[in-house]
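ok so for the tutorial part 2 we go from a plain amino acid sequence to predicted structure tokens. step 1 is just haveing the sequence, like this:
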Amino acid sequence: MPYPQFDRTKLKIKPLSMRKNKVHIERDHIPVSQKPANTSEHFINIVTETVERIRAAHEKKKPVMLTMGAHTIKNGMAPTLIKLMEDGWLTHLATNGAGIIHDWEFAFQGESSEDVRANVDRGEFGIWEETGKYINLALVVGVFEGQGYGEAVGSMIENEGVQIPSREEINKIVLSYESEGVERAAAALDLLQRIKEFDLQPGWLSIPFPYKKYCVQAAAYKLGIPFTGHPMIGHDIIYTHPMNHGAALGRAALRDFLTYANAVNQLDGGVYMSVGSAVMSPMIFEKSLSMSQNLHIQQGSHIDNHYMLIVDLAKSTWDWQKNGEPPETDPAYYLRYLKTFNRMGGIMKYLSADNRDFLLAIYQRLSAGA
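step 2 — the prediction. this is what the tokens look like for a chain of 370 residues:
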């Protein structure tokens, strides 16, 4: 017998405009000209080496991947990330579900980051109409159109809306599943369910994004650079909204994982930067690298010449390069992201630094040509 489930349709969902936010993107964004506060010798040395590695990868047309936690977005680093893309230095960006949401909210209303403690106490945390409705709608429409997680959200923002197909168009695809493909037909049925449930009218649904110049996903979509989203079920506030559809979300996230894995498959000679992601980045990287090595080994090759820079605030006294993996009796063993990346071959460096300082320094050194 199925277990009883929570009924999200009973929730009192408030407009996003009623929420107080801690970060205002026009006020709090970091300009690309701001000088990094960190001037330590170790910081400068790591930045110098990473810049040299990025330039070498760029010359060889190898991937330069940046996978980041949500704080990189919330800290107002969009201008720097967008410039790195526009100047051709980044070939792939990835973040978690929260990073996708902060980026969307900044583009939509110029604000993000609510008071979790106070809003949970009031039964309001994450239960906001526009964020939940429109991001979930972007995913269910995006999957129908063959898009992944980040691309679907980025296209909604850049185009300032989505196209809702007619029920006749959807029925035609479903009935033609043998020629259209079962996946497309299933995605069409998912969308049809949401169209009926929320009485969505066919045609263009306009959604204004007055602050989209600060949106990393929109910029990536416009530039044709993959920006992949890697969520976990139940981790993000969009799961509180009835528009949320697990199958559509899963299809979008799986598509993005395979897009990400395809980039890792080309990483020999490239650069991988993991910034402020203690769990998501190492977990998706190790599976992707393992699949990639499987293919390379079948072809008589191996991925060995990849440079990985891990950036986080936590201090680490263990010298991973010199001493290898620490014993289980040492607390450093339980820094999961360092342990994971240390097992991934290639060259791994760790930098304890604020993501703002690091990304500013990388951009400024690359743009200066020094």
